[in-house]
Specification:
Structural class: mainly alpha
Number of domains: 1
Number of strands: 0
Order of helices and strands: HHHHHHHHHH
Largest sheet: none
Shape: globular
């Protein structure tokens, strides 16, 4: 156990960032586990335990701050559940090379969103029939992404609420944590049934992520958002480049290049 204690501070750091930006700490945890040689299914399932712990802590804190749209969060969260089951199943068979490429793309999109999210905010709320139908489909897809990659699905839910529904970032990120609670819980159950997670590693990550979520929710009230955007975007892009390089090296090795 003691040689894996580093997973607690990793979960803590990821929990802080995940809570503050509403995307979940998996965008930090999964690349690191992947770099260290964890298989896609183990990396994703271990990360989901941290995402669940982070979502519980963040939701509790944001609820006290009265920044969560509970009705919307509950609906989108429940709609994501079927997708999380499929995502867990899909992760069982994906190769490491394909996983790295796909996750690298997710990280690039996450970085672009984090950097541009203020410009995406709309001043008008939109709840047309078309938007409701789109939200249902997006929630199902977000569930697949959440469980397949172990990231919680915030990369889809936060833009959906901000751009599509005109919600402010101050409420979208907290509401996203409530949604991620449902998505990560169902993903954890599905992955556990399939035998994917290492429960000791997942537990250590979850411990760190829980306390990181509490700290992140508090810091979100005071920190200058621009500095956070630059820092997180930079780290994510570096991780994406490393994933692309690793996947290319793995593929080249398979073909004898």
């Amino acid at each position: 156990m003691f040689d894996q204690i580093w997973l607690i501070p990793l979960g803590f750091a990821a929990g802080i960032l995940g809570s503050m930006i509403g995307l979940g700490g998996g965008i930090i945890v999964v690349p690191i586990l992947t770099f260290l040689g964890f298989s896609p299914s183990v990396a994703a399932s271990n990360s989901l335990f941290a995402a669940l712990s982070n979502a519980i802590a963040s939701t509790a804190s944001y609820s006290k701050q009265k920044r969560i749209e509970f009705s919307l969060g509950l609906k989108l969260g429940l709609l994501s559940v079927p997708g999380t089951i499929l995502g867990a199943v899909f992760s069982s068979d994906v190769s490491s090379e394909i996983f790295k490429i796909l996750f690298g793309i997710i990280l690039v999109l996450s970085s672009a969103y984090i950097f541009l999210r203020k410009k995406l905010e709309s001043k008008e709320k939109t709840f047309s029939k078309q938007m409701i139908i789109f939200a249902i489909g997006a929630s199902f897809f977000a569930g697949i992404v959440s469980s397949f990659f172990g990231i919680g699905g915030g990369i889809i839910f936060v833009p959906l609420m901000v751009v599509g529904m005109g919600m402010t970032m101050k409420r979208a990120a907290p509401t996203s944590q409530l949604i991620l609670l449902f998505a990560s819980l169902s993903g954890v159950i599905a992955h556990s049934i399939l035998g994917h997670p290492d429960f000791l590693q997942a537990g250590l990550l979850a411990i760190g992520s829980f306390f990181g979520g509490l700290v992140g929710a508090r810091l979100s009230l005071d920190i200058k958002e621009r500095y956070l955007q630059i820092l997180v975007s930079g780290v994510i892009l570096i991780a994406a480049v490393k994933l692309f390089i690793d996947s290319f090296s793995d593929t080249s090795g398979l073909f004898g290049f």
